[in-house]
Design brief:
With 74 residues, the protein is an alpha+beta fold. It contains 2 helices and 4 strands, in the order βββαβα.
């Protein structure tokens, strides 16, 4: 069976309006860490060619959090 390279796309553009918070949805803490980091932690363990994170609301804050907290751990 031939190897087929896989990529993952994470849609992290939620505003979190129903959460009644100014914090972007993906940055709300779950077990002490932003939700998006739990997803990315799992994805980096898989044999993926590329992981793409699509940001929207609070893009700067989401990008900064991912770069600071994930990039230093990998």
């Amino acid at each position: 069976m031939a190897y087929r390279p896989l990529s993952a796309v994470v849609l992290a553009a939620g505003e979190g309006t129903r959460m009644r918070s100014s914090t972007p949805k993906v940055l709300h803490p779950l077990c002490g860490r932003p939700m998006i980091l739990h997803v990315l932690d799992t994805l980096v363990t898989l044999p993926l060619e590329r992981i793409v994170v699509v940001v929207g609301h609070g893009a700067e804050q989401v990008t900064k959090t991912v770069h600071e907290q994930l990039a230093t751990e990998v």
